[in-house]
Amino acid sequence: MVRSVSDLPALFCLKIPRDGQLRYRPEPRCVCISGATSEVSTTRPVNPANGSRPWMPEPRVGDCLPSLSKCFGKCRRWATKGGLGTFLTKNRQALLPMVELIEQSQVAVDELIDVLGRATIEAALSLSAEGIAGPPHPGKRGGSVGWHGRERGTICLRERKLRVERPRLWKKGQGEEGEVPIPAYEAMRQDGELGNWMLEILLRGVSTRQYGQVIPEMAETAGVSRSSVSREAMEASEEELRRLCERRFDDVDLLIIYLDGVILGEHHVLVAVGADTEGRKHVLGLAEGASEKQGVARGLMEDLVRRRVKADRRRLFVIDGSKAFGAAIDAVFGNQNPVERCRHNKIENVMGYLPDPLKDDVKAPMRSAFQLTAREGIARVEKQAEWLEREYPSAAASLREGLAEVFTINRLGLSPTRARCLVSTNIIESPHSGVRLRTRRVCRWRDGKMVLRWAAAALLMTEQSFRKIMGYRDLRMLKAALETNQSVLQEQVA
């Protein structure tokens, strides 16, 4: 009688031979299942050749299964098509211990699955070892590679590591003596999804201390300590940063590029987000440094060109008002590209120099001026600046700064009401808010590399939920204006 779920691994040991049939090997009691027949024995089966009781005679399977994933795929297809359920129903003796435990409420179904799953993994490791050294047998070994006992090890699951008991193989020979790796074990240890899964959980706001509390409980769980989670997440975030920095845009027709910065701790990160002719948004790149530094902005622009953002293609740039951005755009992409300064930033900058009772009286005329033609709108803003000149000279100077760039969209002949996403860097604020949300658990930013790793991972995760920009159906008008209107830049500079 099976009294606890811990008795099950010794009772069931899964083997998958060449014919695809399931067999459970006795150690020492067994439930032997082969084909459509089954029998229960309390001793090892008798070898009909010599009457002894060695290990169950079965075909060697290592040579006929080139990879563990192919083996698992074959079993998965068999199980999903109902073959496994039909097989277990016909061979019900294998299920009797499980049914007994469940009916007596001595074990939860999840715990039962955990134990049987771990036993299956250990059997698969033994199966892989048999493919190299052959089945274990008493007496002197025949080949150069033999069995060398068992030891504890760990494998990677999706969100944790799991402790298992694995076999060891040893090779003897002059100059070649040493342990032989087991292919299935090495493949399970090198699963790259563990770090990515841990990083995704951390980016969703779970701290490293609480990671072990948000995943389902499983016996023999390993690798969920604070340091282990942090280490795995760091490796995964480095891979995300590398993936972002190696993106190429040969086949992406970028019509708009938004440039803005985000502050993480004491570090500034410049981010470039592009929109193609169909309105789809793409995270283009990032650089660590303040937006006021022309060298940092120019380095970001040159990196985009290196990754095949065409420099000779005329496009619209939307910036936050930094002069360094404008200089970098002219140096790398040429001075034939129209630049639109963010109107929301312009209003906020002017409001910063005014008292609260006066802000609404200045903000409303500015917004109404943005709806006029470029010539009329600039004239109205100039009158407003003259009105502010005497009592609030700083506000007047801020209002006049870069005024021509604020009306670039109007100069292109596009309706301001249909081009709301072209006059503001708010599009890039969505990725920025995603970065702030997903990095809120970070208590200390150690260095710039850490900032770039977290920012890249958060940006790529936020990009998965990107939608097309508002007014994307009217982007054809912007494309036509960029291709035909060559006098925009001259008027802008004048």
Summarize this entry quickly:
This protein is elongated. It has 21 helices and 13 strands. A hairpin with a 4-residue loop joins β5 (145-156) and β6.
Overall strand count: 13
Q: How many helices does DSSP assign? A: 21
What is the percent of helical residues? 40-55%
Low-confidence stretches: 1-50, 52-72, 208-224
Largest sheet: 5 strands, mixed
Shape, please?
Answer: elongated
Mean pLDDT: 73
Rg, rounded, reads: 33 Å
What percentage of the residues does DSSP assign to strands (E)? 15-25%
Strand order of the largest sheet: 11-10-9-12-13
Provide the domain count: 3
CA(first)-CA(last) distance:
93 Å
Structural class: alpha+beta
List the helices and strands and how they pair.
Elements: H1 8-11, E1 14-15, E2 23-24, E3 30-34, E4 37-41, H2 68-80, H3 83-90, H4 96-103, H5 109-133, E5 145-156, E6 161-171, E7 178-180, H6 183-189, H7 193-203, H8 211-214, E8 221-222, H9 226-245, E9 254-264, E10 267-276, E11 281-288, H10 294-306, E12 316-319, H11 323-333, E13 339-341, H12 343-351, H13 356-369, H14 374-389, H15 393-400, H16 403-406, H17 408-411, H18 426-438, H19 448-463, H20 475-484, H21 488-493
Parallel strand pairs: 9-12, 12-13
Antiparallel strand pairs: 1-2, 3-4, 5-6, 6-7, 6-8, 9-10, 10-11
